[in-house]
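Lab notebook, design round three. We kept the backbone fixed and only want residue identities now. Task for the bench partner: fill in a sequence for the structure below.
Input structure tokens:
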């Protein structure tokens, strides 16, 4: 049995307990299902909970492990998935009336990969309408229930932070992985665009969308990333390079560039101070610190991102919207209307501007290994009618470069997050720095009061 009154268990710790046969898959899954019953009425992170299905799979795995000499990397690890990710035979409604009752006939590639690795799906988590801006769900931030958990991966972040699961899948088109991670004291790697398949995931904007997994630690992030990443014949946007596995290693030779330009001038005092403390820790570890600015094309690239997202959102929804626009929320109706009015020439110009920004950002990485910024301007805002600003995440989603968000402090009851950014395909550098930083700090080990 799990002899703890907390839900601070990590994937790495749970794997060890399972391999030592200190707990069984059924005991592990039952523990989290029981905790869901206790805290879900307050947090409201789930749209579907698969209690019987999860317990049935746990029993199957339990029988399998009796004779197994080696277990898959995520064997019996309970997880949740954002409700825009296809799950065969399980409703996938995307937070929308348009898809009410829709049940996919196949699993998204990331679900297939997790199933293959032995993970157990506990349910589907809440999202804003079609993972777009507007129409936030009723989900609460478990650190303070009167605050937003962020969006659009609202339920995925809140479910993990409140201890209802060991990891969760989310997506990001502007800041929907990084921002909820920062607001909820979690760790997340938003990999290079194309590192993780989007096949079987309802698109918000196909050329901007990224998939990722919320975890508690960098160590857990590495375990999950190594299962999720790699080329996929069903997704032509994935890299055709061989699968590259990340490692936990000690590397202290990187130069880190602290971004100091005016784009981040709206950062709250508490977050600025927490970032300064994190930089001191990085210096102690041995990293070289310098100061840099983002490319001049940043402002134009941000505008281009908005245009691309509107056009691609409108393209996906055009047929259904034309048939019955009333089934869409007011914000998304306007977003689609504006997207349908965008001319092809303007869309192509916007994509060109994005390309220029990517090239200029690549030039910055000729002088530093990583960039460092706050993950958000403020901690999680009060109220649940808005999900907070993605401004500090958007440029790096736009460029398709990898980022790592991790907790670095607290402002009262609410977590503070920091963002590290690397050049394309340089996820290992992010892991190196993030792992060493978490060896020196304990912010990632803190839990909301409802978990204690």
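Proposed sequence:
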């Amino acid at each position: 049995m799990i002899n703890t009154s907390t839900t601070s268990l990590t994937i790495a710790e749970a794997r060890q307990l399972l391999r030592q046969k200190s707990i069984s898959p059924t005991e592990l899954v039952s523990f989290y299902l029981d905790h869901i019953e206790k805290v879900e009425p307050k947090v409201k992170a789930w749209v579907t909970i698969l209690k019987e299905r999860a317990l049935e799979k746990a029993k199957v795995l339990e029988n399998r492990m009796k004779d197994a000499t080696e277990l898959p990397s995520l064997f019996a690890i309970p997880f949740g998935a954002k409700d825009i990710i296809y799950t065969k035979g399980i409703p996938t409604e995307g937070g929308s009336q348009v898809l009410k009752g829709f049940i996919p006939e196949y699993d998204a590639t990331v679900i297939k990969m997790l199933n293959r690795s032995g993970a157990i799906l506990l349910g589907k988590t809440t999202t804003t309408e079609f993972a777009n801006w507007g129409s936030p769900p009723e989900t609460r931030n478990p650190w303070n229930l009167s605050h937003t958990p962020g969006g659009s991966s609202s339920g995925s972040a809140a479910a993990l932070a409140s201890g209802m699961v060991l990891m969760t899948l989310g997506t990001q088109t502007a800041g929907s992985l990084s921002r909820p991670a920062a607001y909820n004291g979690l760790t997340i790697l938003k990999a290079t665009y194309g590192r993780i398949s989007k096949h079987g995931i309802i698109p918000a904007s196909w050329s901007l969308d990224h998939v990722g997994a919320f975890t508690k630690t960098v160590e857990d992030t590495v375990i999950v990333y190594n299962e999720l990443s790699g080329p996929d014949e069903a997704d032509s946007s994935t890299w055709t390079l061989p699968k590259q596995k990340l490692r936990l290693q000690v590397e202290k030779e990187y130069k880190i560039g602290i971004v100091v330009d005016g784009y981040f001038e709206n950062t709250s005092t508490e977050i600025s101070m927490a970032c300064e403390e994190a930089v001191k820790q990085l210096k102690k570890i041995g990293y070289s610190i310098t100061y840099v600015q983002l490319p001049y094309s940043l402002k134009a690239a941000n505008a281009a991102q908005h245009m691309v997202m509107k056009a691609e959102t409108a393209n996906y929804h055009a047929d259904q919207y034309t048939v019955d626009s009333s089934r869409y929320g007011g914000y998304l109706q306007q977003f689609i209307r504006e997207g349908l009015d965008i001319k092809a020439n303007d869309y192509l110009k916007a994509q060109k501007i994005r390309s220029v920004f990517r090239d200029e950002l690549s030039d910055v990485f000729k002088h530093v290994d990583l960039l460092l910024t706050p993950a958000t301007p403020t901690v999680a805002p009060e109220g649940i009618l808005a999900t907070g600003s993605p401004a500090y995440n958007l440029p790096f989603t736009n460029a398709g470069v990898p980022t790592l968000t991790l907790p670095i402090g607290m402002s009262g009851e609410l977590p503070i997050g920091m963002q590290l950014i690397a050049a394309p395909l340089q996820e290992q550098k992010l892991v190196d720095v993030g792992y060493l930083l978490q060896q020196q700090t304990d912010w990632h080990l803190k839990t909301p009061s409802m978990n204690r």
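Keep this in mind before ordering anything: Residues 298-323 form the longest helix (26 residues).
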